[in-house]
Specification:
Layout: H1 8-26, H2 37-41, H3 48-61, E1 62-64, E2 71-73, H4 75-79, E3 81-83, E4 89-90, E5 101-102, E6 114-116, H5 123-130, H6 169-191, H7 205-234
Parallel strand pairs: 3-6
Antiparallel strand pairs: 1-2, 4-5
Helix pairs in contact: 6-7
Length: 235
């Protein structure tokens, strides 16, 4: 996995969840479970892949809702086209048991409604938390994990949207050096990447998504390095 995903935080997150699923399957965490696998399925044979599939379905289809002490399935979330920024929103489940779409602009007939996850969502956040690459941005933004304000102890914290700025030329040079070193290390990873060991492009959704994330990460760093170099020339 580390050969494909060059984000240590993402790999650690994935392995942490996989290790937990293995513990669930082996009955090591039964005390934490509302229902154990055996209580639900009896003596049926359940593999780790079965459990991964079930968890993927449930965690991507159920959401927590304010004022309801449980997770709920709300189909309207899946019917809408997910975008980083969207004029439409949804009502909170404050009264009653329904969620409605609140349109932020006129909607023509046969037009697909969108739903905004998070206007601050960056590419790696979308992949890690929602399982898809957000819409391509121009200009590109650094991944969450590459942002100068990223804090590994609070990885989901919203980061400043304003381009990096410093009070002195030294500050710009230090940030440019940090990103340049990071890019060089990623390019070394690319040199060792064996494409023949992985699915052909277009044949595996997860592989294509992760490869897309790799490419976007490098493009965003290159763009930011060039922007910083231009800024330094102006000073």
């Amino acid at each position: 996995m580390r050969d494909l995903v060059d984000l240590n935080a993402v790999v650690s997150h994935i392995l942490e969840h996989q290790n937990y699923l293995e513990a669930v399957l082996d009955g090591q965490v039964n005390a934490q479970m509302e229902f154990t696998v055996k209580e639900v399925l009896g003596n049926a044979t359940v593999t780790l892949d079965d459990l991964k599939y079930a968890c993927a379905l449930s965690t991507t289809r159920y959401v927590t809702v304010e004022k309801r002490d449980r997770v709920m399935m709300i189909p309207i979330f899946d019917l809408s086209n997910h975008k980083r920024i969207c004029p439409h929103t949804t009502t909170a489940l404050d009264n009653g048991d329904e969620v409605s779409v609140l349109v932020g602009e006129d909607v023509e007939a046969d037009t697909e409604l969108c739903y905004s996850y998070n206007p601050h969502m960056r590419d790696d956040y979308g992949v890690l938390n929602y399982g898809f690459l957000p819409e391509l941005e121009d200009p590109p933004r650094l991944l969450q994990i590459d942002h100068p304000a990223y804090n590994v102890t609070d990885p989901n914290k919203d980061l400043p949207e304003e381009p990096f700025s410093a009070e002195s030329i030294d500050g710009y040079q230090q940030e440019m050096a940090r990103l340049t070193e990071l890019l060089q290390s990623l390019e070394q990873v690319d040199l060792a990447f064996n494409a023949s060991a992985w699915p052909a492009p277009g044949t595996d959704y997860i592989f294509d998504m992760l490869m897309g994330l790799r490419q976007r990460r490098r493009n965003a760093i290159r763009y930011e390095v060039a922007r910083l170099a231009s800024k330094i020339e102006e000073l």
